[in-house]
Specification:
Elements lengths: L1 H8 L8 E2 L2 E2 L2 H28 L3 H13 L20 H15 L2 H6 L3 H5 L1
Antiparallel strand pairs: 1-2
Helix pairs in contact: 2-3, 2-4, 3-4
């Protein structure tokens, strides 16, 4: 991301991205940025959906993040370490289940199914 910002400032500078001693290709850098964007967008949309259902923002965000990343309990008393998802409305459970499937099946493989060009060929 930083190299893209630097390229906007100085478009003629040649800069090689490295991770340790290995050079990172442009395709890998774009793929990582795309994955990060899709992950953040998924958590954001799920958080907004859960908040519209009636959950508070902490419960909505931590529930969406834990479902997308499959990382365990959330931060609120309802879905935290001492709670469970039983008290949530059914619509919230559907949203969290969908986000959990998206996180478990990998974001790119599921989002490819949404593109018409995948089904056309």
């Amino acid at each position: 991301f930083i190299s893209h910002v630097r390229r906007l400032i100085s478009p003629h500078v040649v800069e090689v991205q490295r991770y340790g001693e290995r050079r990172i290709s442009e395709d890998v850098a774009v793929s990582v940025l795309l994955f990060f964007f899709v992950y953040i967008a998924t958590v954001s949309v799920a958080t907004l959906a859960l908040a519209m259902i009636g959950l508070d923002w902490v419960t909505a965000f931590s529930g969406a993040a834990s479902a997308a990343g499959n990382i365990g309990p959330g931060l609120s008393p309802e879905i935290g370490p001492s709670g469970n998802f039983q008290g949530l409305p059914d619509a919230a459970k559907w949203v969290l289940s969908s986000v959990m499937l998206l996180g478990r099946l990998e974001f790119f493989s599921v989002t490819v199914l949404l593109f018409w060009s995948f089904w056309r060929d």
